[in-house]
Amino acid sequence: MSLPKLSLRRPLAILGAGFIGLAATFAVAGPASAHHSEVKGQFECDVKTGEYVGHWSIDNVGTSGVDNYRFILVEGKKFVGDQATDVTIPNLSVTPKGADPQYPRTVGKFNTAELRYPGDTTKLSLSVQAQWENKWTEEEPKGDVVNLGGNCKAPEPEEEPKSPKPDATVNQECDGIVEVTLSNGKDATAPAKFTVTGTDGYKETVTVPADKTETVKVPAKNAGDVKVTAEGLDKPLFDGKPAEPENCVAPGEPSSSYQSTCDDLVYEIVNPADGKTIEVTLTPSKGEPQKLVVEPGKTGVAKFPASEGLTLTPSGEGFENAKPIKWEKPTTCTKGGAGGGEDELPLTGAAAGGIAATAVVLLAIGVTLFVVSRRRRMRFTA
């Protein structure tokens, strides 16, 4: 039995059809996959500024021997919710026809410059469409969309702590009252709160604004010990007994003073009502000494004729350390001697009478001449 002869015509036809289809597939798909653009966006929140920051990456691919291309479409958008806004991408723009060079971009991958968008941005998109120097053009734009949260925020700035600048000075007056001056510096950013305390339960609270000063007077009966504190400070600004002032006249003690006039050197003692009788001897460098006896509640005054170089020295109980007092000529003394005054006394007595008599005689002579001239006629001859 002989086997039938197999025919190769049908298998070869099927194989040939497969090769033709594969060739057609390569012919169509090959150039399409070789020319294309890929767009990718990378953005994240910058918590330091409260902005979205990032860039777009674009990868452009061409066939072998095709090195350059241009963009015929570039479209960037920023979204806040449904509201879209066109945005410009630096160094990424359409190359117009007729430009030189017409295809300025080199095939390959590149990143745009750093881009920043407000923190309320919810979406970013970028679409590009390329054309290569072999005239191959992307059929449709290629792009990417980056969805953002729209809630990129910088941290709230820390509030600068409020800072007062408290200071205090304490001075005791001659009557025993203590004056406390409370101040808050010019550069203070908050009011300063002070507390002033004294003996026997004395307490005063004061608030001083920036660049201001307030005064508290502690009564003498409460000023044995004074303490000044300020809120926020660990140590008191003052704590203790204030220093007693100098040159104060204690109750019951007399006070003395002197004055240089154009005519005299005047010395005065005031004895308080609760003092005791004062006896003082005043010895001038020229002339006789004078003794003043001043009872309580009285004032004693002594005068000495003024002269150049005159000095006066008090002596007696309580005046052991008294220094000599010197007469000094006032600048208003412009006439007379050492004690000459600025004005002269009016003339009186005999001198004044002589001047008056002379005036009367001159007046009589004038009247007589007037009468004679009226009665006598004057004739003029040529």
Structure write-up:
The protein is mainly beta and 382 residues long. Among the domains are: 32-147, Immunoglobulin-like, CATH 2.60.40; 166-240, Sandwich (Immunoglobulin-like); 255-326, Sandwich (Immunoglobulin-like), CATH 2.60.40. 14% of the residues lie in helices and 38% in strands. It has two helices and 23 strands. It has helices at residues 9-34, 349-375; strands at residues 36-46, 51-61, 68-80, 83-87, 105-106, 108-111, 115-118, 123-132, 142-147, 166-172, 178-184, 192-197, 203-208, 212-218, 226-230, 238-240, 255-260, 264-270, 278-284, 290-294, 299-305, 311-315, 325-326. The strands form six sheets. Strands 3, 4, 5, 8 and 9 form a five-stranded antiparallel sheet that branches. Strands 1, 2, 6 and 7 form a four-stranded antiparallel sheet that branches. A hairpin with a 3-residue loop joins strand 17 and strand 18 (264-270). The N and C termini lie far apart (209 Å). Residues 22-32, 339-352 and 369-382 have low confidence and may be disordered.
Concise overview:
With 382 residues, the protein is mainly β. Among the domains are: 32-147, Immunoglobulin-like (Sandwich), CATH 2.60.40; 166-240, Immunoglobulin-like; 255-326, Immunoglobulin-like (Sandwich), CATH 2.60.40. It contains two helices and 23 strands.
Descriptive keywords:
five-stranded antiparallel β-sheet; 23 strands; 382 residues; Immunoglobulin-like; single chain; 38% strand; four-stranded antiparallel β-sheet; mainly beta
Secondary-structure topology with pairs:
Blueprint: H1 9-34, E1 36-46, E2 51-61, E3 68-80, E4 83-87, E5 105-106, E6 108-111, E7 115-118, E8 123-132, E9 142-147, E10 166-172, E11 178-184, E12 192-197, E13 203-208, E14 212-218, E15 226-230, E16 238-240, E17 255-260, E18 264-270, E19 278-284, E20 290-294, E21 299-305, E22 311-315, E23 325-326, H2 349-375
